[in-house]
Amino acid sequence: MMRHERQVELLRRLQGADAPRPGPLGASSMHNSATAYTSAARFDDELRVLFTGMAQLAALSCEVAEPGAFVTTTVGRVPIVVVRQDDGRVRAFVNACRHRGATLFTAMAGDGLRKITCPYHAWTYGLDGCLRSFPGAEAGFDDIDRSTHGLHEVTAAEDHGLVFVRLDSDAGPFTVDEALHGAQDELADFGLAGYTHIETRSNEWRMNWKLVMDTFTEPYHIPWLHKDSIAPYYLFDRWIHDDYGPHPRFIGTRKSVTDELAKPNEDDWDLLPHGTIQYLLIPNAVLVHQIDHIELWRLVPLAVNRTIAVTSIYAPPGPVTDKARRYFVKNLDILLGVTNSEDFPAQERIQRNLDSGAVPEVVYGKMEPALVHYHAAINKLLADAGASQ
Questions:
Q1: Are residues 65 and 45 in the same domain?
Q2: 144 lies in the same domain as 188
């Protein structure tokens, strides 16, 4: 878990009468064009610059813990499968057969692979993606060079219990530390490789993918949007915010944190039971520590106003009993019960308003610093690549 001295350091920011409320505020507000959420041309640029050019979080290492384990995901519009190799490395491939483009894996995850066999015509590959055989049809493909017909591989990197992939193979290898821009110093403390995957669910929403991300950037909406659910338990005017390169880290706090700060001895302080620690990893992942477990949101942009949100929950290191598994599934039920009935329907209505053309821009306030940083970082990445804004 996060080092105790780091927890104390973060809690000190909230301590005392001088702690700003609301706050701490960002340097300035920001106006962002509605086209950030509605422009098809900009959406295409985002797929090219952000989803193809950037490394992004594909899985936690615990999802592919043993050789032969695999997990599927979608990066931008590209279906990907991550496979643990016999030598312990992870490799990532386009989840499509080289014969006719059939999907190789339809399951979200699995284990025990010794080979990869296409369900359409049984073309067979090794775990390393190399084409091994054309069962029952060797003569029909005797003019095909197997050595040049392996699975299309994409660059993968693993560290700190995280697996990142990058579609742009021309950009060469990368490290997880490079992708995290310093956030690894905190994330490494959580020991994510030792966690256990419990369950993953997905839902499609009629909104731009960034509206899903916006949900996690501020607590300002809690007293109103969530007045009948989680509002009694959360502060909306105190938070902790830091940036790691383009990635904001935002910590929302429960009201119980005031009792923690009232303890006279800092050795007794503990942030984790009172904070929702959210790492917004540009472009499309939110990694969350929530009291006693990990949550991961991964977004798949289908169109400028259509997005699949994939939500996973992970139990901390140690044996997971059936009772514990039910507890973590219940936490996932509660999480999605709030987001799917309150947050995301509100964001779908926002999308319709922006699509109408009647709302030319949105405003992010100084009390939404993570939101400001997130969109400013995206706009800069697009501008640096010469993309439309």
A1: no
A2: no
Q: Which of 121, 141, 173 is the last residue of a domain?
A: 173
pLDDT class of 138 with cuts at 50, 70, 90: confident
- Residue 378 predicted with pLDDT over 90: yes
Indicate which CATH number applies to the domain containing 109: 2.102.10.10
**pLDDT by residue (tens digit) across 10-37?**
999 888 656 778 888 999 999 999 999 9
Please state the three-class secondary structure of the chain as a single string.
Answer: CCCHHHHHHHHHCCCCCCCCCCECCCCCCEEEECHHHHCHHHHHHHHHHHHHCCCEEEEEHHHHCCCCCEEEEEECCEEEEEEECCCCCEEEEECCCCCCCCCCCCCCEECCCCCEECCCCCCEECCCCCEEECCCCCHHHCCCCHHHCCCCEEEEEEECCEEEEECCHHHCCCCHHHHHCCCHHHHHHHCHHHCEEEEEEEEEECCCHHHHHHCCCCCCCHHHHCCCCCHHHEEEEEEEEEEECCEEEEEEEECCHHHHHCCCCHHHCCCCCCEEEEEEECCCEEEEEECCEEEEEEEEEEECCEEEEEEEEEECCCCCCHHHHHHHHHHHHHHHHHHHHHHHHHHHHHHHHHHCCCCCEEEECCCCHHHHHHHHHHHHHHHHCCCCC
Whether residue 370 is found in the same domain as residue 261: yes
Domain range spanning residue 368?
1-54+180-389
Query: In the predicted model, what is the mean pLDDT of residues 86-97?
Result: 98
Of 153, 173, 193, the residue at which a domain comes to its end is 173
Whether residues 85 and 154 fall in one domain: yes
